[in-house]
Specification:
heterodimer; A: mainly alpha; two-stranded antiparallel sheet; 4 strands; 70% helix; disordered N terminus; B: mainly alpha; flat
Chain lengths: 290, 271
């Protein structure tokens, strides 16, 4: 029986951290996936979800009340990221970092896995991964499924709603679990995972596919046409037919590229762009040009 | 003029609350909230007209095409918009284009409600601190999951219920009065152009300016092949192949990758 006191933690085998298994990581991610946006607040954003997700792992690691409370507080600091890319990698990463920290505390070693190191890792990754995750998951993959299903919805089929929902929701759970496991096994080297050629190629492929699908959507679903007709020296002249004979789709394309140009000049001001576009289209429609 | 029954209004209100509280299957609510499709389907089931509801919902989906929330702020709430606009359009037997006129303002109001939810949760968060202090795991569950969910239901159910039960017939009447006027031509034009917002937003957020080539390529493909009725699935496969070719050529040109191991995307995982 050891009775040596180090770091004010009694060094006895009853307080030994339990092993964190792959199942624990899966469970932690699924808890995060469920809690994700439920307690979203202005103060800490998604931190309570991360704490609730990590709680069973923290219970297994810290058998000392003060150490456990400190760990709870560590995972309740400001946190905001995207569900799967950010949430997946960071839950896996935090599990492996907390495991290392618990081991250091139990063995009475010098603490290398400091609070600062843990929080900086979390803070450093959460924004970058949210950017990638949002544009790939919500912005690209979700809309690829929706784009495929829209024609079914237009024909009155319930498949138009069920297909994108089921496929996208399933995709998100799977990709999130994948990232959580990767985050756990790579430990502190999560940045190398994100910089690996494989992941970079996948991101590039999805970005291109996203732009491609947006082009298809713009061609099929942006409906802007001129209703202007007048007669020149007795012959009827239809503006839209003339435009179609020069460059089909020129008006929808002008509108999309116009908004894109607006963003490059003013930054991503979606609501402003929405109001301007509504106003311009409404005026042009009222005076009979569109 | 038909109206919604008390039960129909209540079921739709409960569905919206379940989605907006983000507690219905957790992360799965992301697409339930961003897309009006599932909410439209639920409305169709409740009102006994799934085909009619899906047609209207498809029109609403088009104006929210490509919209998502980079960084968490949404200009509009498509699910709430569909919950009000689809019943109104079905009751008033309106054109899908007219449903958009209802959806847009409702969606904007909905986004304020969603912001208000963060405000409520900020106060509930104070109790989370107390539970952590006491290491009270039950308290953590209640303050992180249970209370925010209940608060959302208390916020969304009454408002959506009132809007449907008393508001929907009134809105439908107003829109019907506008039919045949220039106002509806304006709505049609605006509705037809709004899909451009989401598309342009997505192009901007993906953020690789030189890749706009792929957008232009696809745009002209879809215009040229419009008469061939190529499905979206076919286009998605084509797009994947074009993207894969590009990535392949590019990574072959790079020669040796910079020191990073070429980890395959799905090694050592076991779904």
């Amino acid at each position: 029986m050891m009775t040596e006191i180090k770091n004010n933690v009694a060094f006895d085998s009853r307080k030994q951290p339990e092993e964190i298994t792959k199942r624990d990581v899966t469970k932690t991610y699924l808890r995060w996936h469920f809690a994700n946006e439920i307690p979203h607040s202005f103060e800490r954003y998604l931190a309570p979800s991360l704490l609730w997700a990590m709680r069973p792992i923290l219970r297994k690691l810290y058998k000392d009340d003060d150490a456990l409370r400190a760990a709870y507080e560590r995972q309740l600091l400001f946190f905001n990221t995207q569900l799967t890319w950010g949430g997946g990698i960071i839950t896996g990463l935090m599990a492996s970092m907390e495991q290392e920290r618990a081991r250091e505390e139990y063995n009475g070693e010098e603490i290398k896995m400091t609070d600062d190191l843990m929080y900086n890792t979390k803070a450093g990754l959460m924004g970058a991964l949210a950017g990638i995750g949002d544009s790939i998951d919500s912005g690209t993959i979700q809309y690829i499924f929706i784009a495929i299903a829209i024609p079914w919805a237009q024909n009155g089929s319930s498949l138009g709603a069920l297909f994108p929902f089921i496929f996208f929701a399933t995709y998100q759970v799977l990709i999130g679990l994948f990232f959580a496991r990767q985050g756990f096994t790579t430990g502190r080297n999560a940045t190398t995972l994100m910089q690996s050629a494989g992941i970079q190629n996948v991101i590039e492929l999805l970005s291109i596919l996203g732009l491609f699908m947006m082009g298809i959507l713009a061609g099929n679903y942006v409906k802007v046409s001129s209703s202007l007709e007048f007669s020149i020296s007795g012959r009827p002249f239809n503006v839209q037919e003339t435009l179609d004979s020069i460059l089909p789709g020129v008006l929808p394309l002008t509108v999309v590229l116009g908004i894109y140009w607006y963003y490059t000049k003013k930054g991503l001001k979606v609501t402003q762009a929405l109001l301007w576009l509504t106003l311009i289209l409404a005026v042009l429609a009222a005076i009979g040009i569109l | 003029m038909e109206t919604l029954s008390l039960w129909q209004s209540l079921i739709i209100a409960l569905w919206v609350a379940a989605v907006m509280s983000r507690s219905l299957l957790g992360g799965a609510t992301l697409t339930l909230r961003f897309s009006p499709l599932m909410t439209g389907l639920i409305v169709g089931i409740v009102m006994g007209d799934v085909p009619g509801a899906m047609v209207i919902t498809a029109a609403i989906q088009l104006i929210y095409m490509g919209v998502f929330s980079p960084g968490g702020t949404m200009p509009s709430e498509p699910s709430i918009a569909a919950a009000i606009a689809v019943p109104v359009a079905l009751l008033g037997d309106l054109e899908p284009g007219a449903a958009i006129a209802v959806a847009v303002p409702v969606g904007l109001l909905g986004s304020y409600l969603y912001q208000f939810r963060f405000f409520i949760n900020t106060f509930i968060g104070k109790w989370t601190d107390k539970a952590v202090e006491k290491l009270d795991d039950g308290g953590i569950f209640r303050t992180v999951i249970l209370y925010p969910t209940l608060a959302s239901f208390l916020l969304f159910v009454p408002l959506v219920f009132i809007a449907l039960y008393w508001g929907a017939p009134v809105i439908a009447d107003v829109i019907e009065m506008l039919e045949g006027t220039v106002a509806l031509h304006i709505l049609d034009v605006v509705g037809g152009g709004l899909a451009a917002i989401g598309i342009a937003t997505t192009i901007y957020v993906i953020g690789r300016r030189e890749y706009i080539i792929f957008f232009l390529l696809a745009f002209f493909m879809s215009v040229i092949f419009a008469d061939l009725n190529i499905t979206m699935v076919t286009y998605a496969i084509l797009g994947t192949l074009i993207a894969a070719m590009f990535v392949l050529v590019k990574s072959n040109n790079k020669g040796v990758t910079t020191g990073s191991t070429n980890a395959d995307f799905d090694d050592d995982d076991d779904f």
